[in-house]
């Protein structure tokens, strides 16, 4: 059995996840070491691998993270659904997916936009069934962080089973990684799985 090193230093989301997935699908590979040089990529690869049933250990060296990925069996499976199949193949009747790219609703007054976004989330929190997933990108990630005016509504939906995912690249860009208060850090691969799944998708921009 062979071991494969995937050097993803300098690569932006979702390339480290995609390169790791490609290595997982290579026949005869017993383990993989994925090397990344930023914490967002580290979190994304670990989440991807663990959700797909792999074991991950990590080591920080040479100003990078070395992620050792292995499978409980003798070798890595030759195919992987990407670790998100269980989440993204829910019945469409479980609720829609909301793709949220802003922290204020509509054009015009920012103050009015914030009032409207809070009103929207108050409405979403009363849905039955609740949304299957809330996907936050760009300034939308501020809504999942400390100081959000819709945190109570998000907590209610999250407790009801709604997946709350915030783009790791966006959190990193706005330097608010440490302010995330609900849900999990995500990547474009996982987000695209939700967008291309069976659920109805509504974009909030």
Could you estimate the helical fraction of the residues in percent?
25-40%
Strand percentage, roughly? Answer: 15-25%
Coarse shape: elongated
Question: Could you say what the CATH topology of the largest domain is called?
Answer: Hypothetical Protein Ychn, Chain: A
Give a structural overview.
The protein has 7 helices and 9 strands; from the N terminus they run βαβαββαβαβαβαβαβ. By secondary structure, it is an alpha/beta fold. It has 2 domains: 2-81, TusA-like domain (Translation Initiation Factor IF3, 2-Layer Sandwich); 87-204, DsrEFH-like (Hypothetical Protein Ychn, Chain: A). The strands form 2 sheets. It has a 5-stranded parallel sheet with strand order 8-7-6-5-9. α1 (15-24) runs parallel beside α2 (39-51). The radius of gyration is 18 Å and the shape is elongated. The protein starts with a strand and ends with a strand.
């Amino acid at each position: 059995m062979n071991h494969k090193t995937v050097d993803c230093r300098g690569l932006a989301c979702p390339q480290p996840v995609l390169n790791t997935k490609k290595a997982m699908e290579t026949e005869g590979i017993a383990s993989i070491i994925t090397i990344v040089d930023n914490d967002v990529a580290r979190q994304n690869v670990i989440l991807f691998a663990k959700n797909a049933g792999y074991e991950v250990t990590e080591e920080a060296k040479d100003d990078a993270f070395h992620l050792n990925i292995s499978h409980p069996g003798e070798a890595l499976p030759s195919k992987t659904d990407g670790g998100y199949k269980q989440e993204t193949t829910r019945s469409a009747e479980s609720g829609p997916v909301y793709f949220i790219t802003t922290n204020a609703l509509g054009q015009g007054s920012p103050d009015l936009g914030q009032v409207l976004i809070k009103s929207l989330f108050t409405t979403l929190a009363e849905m039955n069934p609740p949304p299957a997933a809330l996907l936050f990108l760009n300034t939308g990630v501020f809504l999942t962080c400390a100081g959000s005016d819709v945190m109570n509504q998000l907590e209610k939906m999250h407790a009801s089973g709604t997946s709350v995912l915030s783009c790791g690249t966006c959190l990193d860009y706005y330097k608010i990684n440490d302010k995330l208060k609900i849900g999990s850090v995500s990547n474009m691969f996982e987000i695209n799985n939700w967008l291309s799944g069976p659920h109805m998708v509504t974009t909030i921009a």
